[in-house]
User: Which sequence fits this backbone?
């Protein structure tokens, strides 16, 4: 395993015993996460993301399979794994009977940091995550966004090289969301590897360097958001061309021969072109049509979304799953 | 050692939390206080009945009250744990290198300290009513109470971790504690009971604890009841610590 691989799993499986038979939450997951990236697990609720994350953070013993997390074997050295990872669960787990600072201090002490170091880390994190104004108030009084920032701080007290975030922005207002995204990017830029789960398409798209799409306990696709989207559909350029005198047909025939055009569909009033890179195709399209003297009435560019990717790979839309 | 250090850290945290919200501590004390003030005076008449142990109504009743405190004051600690489970606190702690045993011992230690404080307050409250206090006896009784308290908190936590729901925990606790209370001789000495009731009480560990407490409290440390009580409580303490420690080590919600 190369030095910079943070997570590697092989055939990771988790089966639960329920009242009626068994539930296979995770069905053989093979995953590799390099250091220094933001890696996302995208999938609907119930796909097995949280179960997978719980296994990687030593909370659940796998039913089968191997995994190495932060350089240590998950099943044989869970204690060593714990020393090197941070974890922010969906619920957060803040002690509401203590102040934010007290929460941070206890957390640091549990990681073995001495008093001076703990206080220093607490102060640094409070400043970095803008908790100054209420760090010494009971955590139970914090707003949703403030709580989430404290949750994040708790996961970072011991400066872990690998941070796990389970649905980090669920329930947050847009402003808090954006702030949290910025913070995650800052962490990545300073060398921390971030592994997060999400069911938000825009979060997966905007935040993650690499994605794995999960459905029913399996990984159905993996890659960078752009690569995944291009793989599926490419961009769609919609042209409004006059339908008189067979102009539409002429334009269609002309464009079909262009190398950057994958497919052309002529509809009643428009031409729909499937191209690889829309932003590069547009000027070429305009040049070609202009050169042939075909007047263009309207032009529009649509990018494929991760929902298209999800739909193609799993047969159902992610949007339908989100309640 | 790491377990001791972690236990201390978690104990300090739990204690701080409880001192900030002492509602349950006070509530836990009110039940025995009610019994002391509203029930104990009734015993004066009963104490003249044949079969009632000698020593005065209050001195016979008091050790039972302490055992009752050890039973009810501690049985419901599981609710606090369920609240923490729900909030994700236990999950967060379990991802840290913290000792799994310390997760149990830290809070159990806090529960025992609270129990001892409540016991001393109870005895102090009864003293003006004519309670005869034998200090070494009291200390030994409190020692027995610590064992009982440990058994109760460990069982409460183990059941709480298994059920993970307040709605499920409440009926379980109530169903278990009431017969234990009635069959222990806390309210009225079992020497007053018919043969069959006394026989059933023989399987109730709490009955042995009450007998032992009564002897110890009134300075009769040499009674066989004392030895019996300590052995039974000791064994139960070890078993329940083992059960609860195992529950904390395993995967939770």
Assistant:
């Amino acid at each position: 395993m190369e030095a910079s691989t943070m997570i590697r799993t092989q055939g990771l499986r988790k089966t639960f015993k329920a009242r009626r038979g068994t539930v296979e939450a995770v069905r053989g997951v093979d995953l590799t996460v390099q250091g220094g990236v933001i890696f996302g697990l995208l999938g609907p609720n119930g796909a097995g993301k949280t179960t997978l994350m719980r296994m990687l953070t030593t909370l659940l013993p796998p039913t089968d399979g191997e995994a190495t997390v932060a350089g240590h074997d998950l099943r044989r050295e869970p204690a060593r794994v714990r020393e090197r990872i941070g974890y922010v669960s969906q619920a957060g787990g803040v002690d509401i009977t203590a102040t934010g600072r007290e929460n941070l201090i206890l957390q640091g002490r549990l990681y073995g940091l001495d008093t001076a170091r703990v206080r220093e880390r607490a102060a640094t994190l409070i400043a970095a995550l803008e908790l100054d104004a209420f760090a010494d108030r009971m955590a139970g009084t914090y707003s949703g966004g403030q709580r989430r920032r404290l949750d994040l701080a708790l996961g970072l007290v011991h400066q872990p090289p690998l941070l796990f975030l389970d649905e980090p922005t669920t329930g947050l207002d847009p402003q808090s969301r954006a702030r949290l995204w910025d913070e995650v990017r800052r962490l990545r830029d300073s060398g921390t590897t971030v592994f997060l789960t999400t069911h938000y398409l825009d979060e997966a798209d905007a935040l993650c360097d690499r994605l794995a799409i999960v459905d029913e306990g399996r990984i159905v696709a993996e890659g960078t958001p752009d690569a995944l989207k291009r793989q599926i559909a490419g961009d769609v350029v919609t042209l409004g061309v006059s339908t008189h005198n067979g102009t539409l047909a002429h334009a269609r025939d002309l464009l079909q021969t262009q190398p950057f055009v994958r497919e052309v569909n002529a509809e009643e009033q428009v031409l729909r072109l499937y191209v690889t890179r829309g932003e590069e195709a547009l000027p070429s399209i305009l040049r070609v049509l202009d050169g042939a003297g075909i007047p263009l009435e309207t032009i529009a560019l649509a990018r494929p979304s991760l929902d298209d990717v999800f739909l193609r790979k799993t047969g159902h839309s992610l949007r339908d799953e989100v309640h | 050692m790491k377990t001791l250090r972690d236990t201390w850290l978690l104990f300090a945290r739990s204690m701080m939390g409880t001192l900030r919200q002492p509602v349950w501590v006070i509530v836990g004390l009110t039940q025995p206080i009610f019994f002391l003030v509203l029930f104990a005076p009734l015993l004066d008449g009963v104490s003249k009945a044949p079969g009632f142990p000698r020593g005065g109504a209050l001195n016979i009743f008091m050790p039972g009250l302490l055992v009752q405190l050890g039973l009810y004051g501690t049985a419901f600690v599981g609710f606090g744990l369920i609240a923490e489970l729900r909030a994700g606190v236990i999950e967060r702690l379990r991802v840290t290198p913290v000792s799994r045993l310390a997760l149990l011992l830290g809070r159990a230690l806090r529960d025992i300290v609270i129990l001892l404080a409540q016991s001393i307050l109870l005895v102090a409250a009864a003293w003006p009513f004519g309670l005869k206090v034998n200090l070494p006896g009291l200390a030994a009784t409190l020692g027995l109470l610590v064992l009982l308290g440990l058994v109760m908190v460990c069982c409460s936590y183990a059941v709480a971790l298994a059920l993970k729901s307040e709605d499920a925990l409440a009926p379980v606790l109530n169903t278990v504690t009431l017969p234990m209370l009635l069959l222990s001789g806390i309210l009225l000495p079992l020497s007053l009971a018919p043969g069959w009731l006394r026989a059933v009480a023989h399987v109730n560990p709490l009955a042995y604890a009450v007998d032992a407490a009564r002897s110890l409290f009134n300075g009769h440390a040499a009674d066989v009841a004392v030895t019996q009580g300590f052995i039974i409580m000791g064994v139960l303490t070890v078993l329940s610590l083992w059960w609860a420690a195992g529950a904390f080590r395993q995967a939770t919600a």
In short: The interface with chain A takes residues 6, 9, 13, 16-17, 20-21, 84, 86-98, 251 of chain B (CB under 8 Å).
